[in-house]
Task: inverse folding
């Protein structure tokens, strides 16, 4: 059999600071009941003032390398997928490459909204199958990019980072990358944006004074509708392409945006809810980190067994959506770093 791209190990990091619904309701016109009923979220993590996209990414990256017992000097690529980068330029990945002392690696960022990690995985797959060692990191510090006074967005997001170390199956077994798909529809771009700071909407003195220059804008109900439709469609299409049905799957790992979205996709695909992973109650929507963080948590909780088949599916700004099959040829070692306990 030809060499396949394989997830050799998984690492993740969630910051220490827990922000509960009750804490948010102290300064926002919202309530624990509303947030739980409409989203399933109970709490989320916020990075500390001295933590950045690069520091979170570095913790997750080190965790993945440590779990695999692979030195950073062995890396060929560091790919950081994020919508909340360290700065405009250079890429967050360069700061991570430096912090890791990944002396032979090339480093670059990719931005794909909440589907970005799976899109990036698709790009990395060919490199890994050809023998490169690729660290794919999904990181988001969305707490820094929501308006804390906007109840429509402030309750939904959290901060986290998660990393997959990819390499060839010829060198090591792990979670083997099966079929995948990804697609975008840029005609829907305006529904979920962080519009200021680029060349289309410059940050003028007026925009800065209004305080909206770096915050997320979203039509929640529209995103909800598209997310359910596209994630269900992507899941069905990938199963059909793979000659599988939902009965062949051991786990579905959806983007962790909202429990109601997850439940609707579960219903649409006719899935057994006990096979659909969710930890949105604890970590909320962590954007580019979301799906990888979910896999890290599942491995950490020993929910995944050898030879099990997983379907990962995600949707986000763009709009973009993506799906990916993973098979546990062997269990990838994991290091799930929780700032609350380390
Ligand atoms: O990765 C993709 C990123 N985005 C998402 O995943 C978001 C997808 N969308 C959603 O998850 C949901 O649309 C929300 C959770 C954002 C909103 O839930 P909804 O059931 O679609 O509520 P809604 O926006 O239709 O609002 C219903 C009511 C409104 O009040 P009125 O106009 O009926 O009086 C809102 O103003 O709920 C109000 N509302 C809130 N009330 C308390 C909106 N946000 C809140 C809040 N607390 N945090």
Result:
């Amino acid at each position: 059999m030809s060499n396949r791209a394989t997830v050799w190990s998984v690492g993740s990091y969630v910051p220490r600071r827990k922000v509960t619904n009750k804490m948010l309701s102290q300064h926002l016109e919202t309530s624990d009941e509303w947030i739980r009923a409409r989203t399933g979220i109970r709490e989320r993590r916020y990075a500390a003032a001295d933590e950045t996209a690069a520091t979170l990414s570095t913790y997750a990256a080190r965790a993945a390398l440590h779990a695999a017992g692979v030195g950073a000097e062995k890396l060929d690529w560091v790919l950081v997928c994020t919508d909340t980068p360290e700065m405009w330029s250079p890429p967050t990945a360069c700061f991570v490459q430096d912090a890791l002392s990944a002396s032979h690696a090339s480093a670059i960022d990719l931005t794909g909204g909440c589907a970005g990690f799976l899109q990036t995985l698709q790009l990395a797959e060919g490199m890994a199958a050809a023998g490169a060692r690729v660290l794919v990191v999904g990181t988001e510090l969305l707490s820094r990019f929501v308006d804390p006074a906007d109840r429509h967005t402030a309750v939904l997001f959290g901060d986290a980072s998660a990393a997959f170390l990819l390499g060839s199956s010829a060198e090591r077994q792990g979670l083997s990358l099966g079929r995948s798909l990804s697609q975008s529809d840029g005609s829907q771009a305006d529904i979920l944006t962080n519009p200021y700071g680029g060349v289309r909407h410059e940050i003028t003195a007026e925009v800065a004074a209004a305080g909206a220059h770096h915050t997320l804008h979203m039509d929640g109900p529209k995103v909800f509708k598209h997310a359910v439709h596209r994630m269900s469609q992507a899941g069905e299409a990938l199963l059909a392409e793979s000659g599988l049905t939902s009965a062949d799957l051991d786990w579905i790992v959806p983007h962790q945006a909202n429990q109601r979205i997850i439940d609707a996709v579960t219903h649409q695909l006719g899935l057994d809810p006990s096979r659909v992973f969710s930890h949105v109650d604890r970590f909320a929507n962590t954007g580019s980190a979301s799906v990888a963080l979910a896999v890290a948590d599942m491995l950490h909780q020993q929910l995944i067994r050898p030879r099990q088949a997983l379907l990962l599916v995600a949707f986000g700004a763009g709009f973009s959506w993506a799906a990916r099959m993973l098979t546990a040829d062997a269990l990838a070692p994991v290091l799930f770093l929780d700032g609350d306990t380390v």
Notes: The chain has a mean pLDDT of 96. Residues 30, 34-35, 38-39, 114, 151-152, 155-156, 218, 220-221, 223-224, 227, 257-258, 285, 316 surround oxa(dethia)-CoA (CB under 6 Å). The chain is about 30% helix and 25% strand. The chain has one domain: 1-342.
